[in-house]
Write a structure and sequence with these properties.
This protein has 12 helices and 2 strands; from the N terminus they run H-E-E-H-H-H-H-H-H-H-H-H-H-H. With 300 residues, it is mostly helical. Helix 3 runs antiparallel to helix 9. The longest helix is centred in the middle third of the chain and has 29 residues. Helix content is 71%, strand content 2%. It has one domain. Keywords: Membrane, Signal, Transmembrane, Transmembrane helix.
Length: 300
Amino acid sequence: MRLTRSSTVSSRRLATAALGSACAALCACTGLAGRSPVLTRTNFHGRRVSLRGGAGAAVGSVVACLAAGEQAAGTVVPAAVATGAGAVAGLVDDLDEGAHDGEHVAKGLRGHLGALARGRVTTGVVKIVVIGAGAAVAGGLLAADRGRGRAGAGRARRCAVLGDAVVTTVTIASWANVMNLLDLRPGRTLKATGLVSALVLVVPIDRAAASRRLAAGALGVVAACLPGDLRERTMLGDTGANALGALVGTAVASHPCRVAREAAALLGVVLVLASEKVSFSSVIDKVPALAALDRLGRRP
C-alpha cells in the first residue's frame, strides 16, 4: 500500500511526539537522585523504590502536550493544563508521606469526602479540587474550540457547548483518577496507558490529529518508564499516575467522535464508582487474561 505525502508527514509527527516525550521522561528520571529519602517509598513487595519514575512520567506527559504542534493549537493549552494539574496534585500527595500511613487513612472518594465533612482536609481532597479544576478548564477550552464550528441558534449552541464541556471534564478527571487507582502493582498503570493510547492511534477517524499526537506522546512516556517500573527500580506514585491519566483522558476527550468521548466519560465514572466497592487487583487476579498481562515482565 502506497503512502501519501500527508500520511507520511502525519506518521513523522506522531513519531516525533513519541520520541520527544520518551526523551523528556528519561532525562527527568536519570536527572533525579534515586536514593533521596524524599523520593523513596515502600512498594507492595516491601522494597524501597524511587519515585523519580513519577517525575519522569509527569515531565514526559507535559512535553507530549506541547509536542501536539501548531495544527493542534486548540488542544495544546487544555492538555497541558489538565496534565500539569494532575502532576501537581499527585506531587502534593506523594510528598506527604504521612497521608499513606497511620490509623485514620482516608481512602477513595467516600473516605476523603467523609474526612472533609468532619473538618479534615486530606491530600485526597486537594487532589479532587486541583484535578477537577484542571479538567474543568481543559474541558471548557476544548468544548469552546469545537463549538466554533457548531451549527445552530445561539441558545441551543451554548447548551450544546456546555454539555460538551461537562462530558469532556468528566472524561479527563475520571481517567486521571482511574490510572491512579490502577497504580498498585509495577507496570499496571503504564500498561493501561499504553492500551488506551494504542486504541486512540489505531482507530482511523478524520480530524483526530491532536488526539493521536497526545496518544503517541503517552506511548513514548510508557516506553521510557516501563522498564524501570517493572524491575521495581522506580515507581510512578501519584505524580506520574495522575499526570498520565490526565494525558490519556485529554487524548480521548479531544477526539472528534462525540460517541467515543461520551463512552469514555461513562466508563471512567463507572470504574471510579466501582473502585469504592471492588478491588481492581482482586478482579485482575481472577481473570486469567488480565492476570497474565498484569504479570508480564514483572519481577516475581
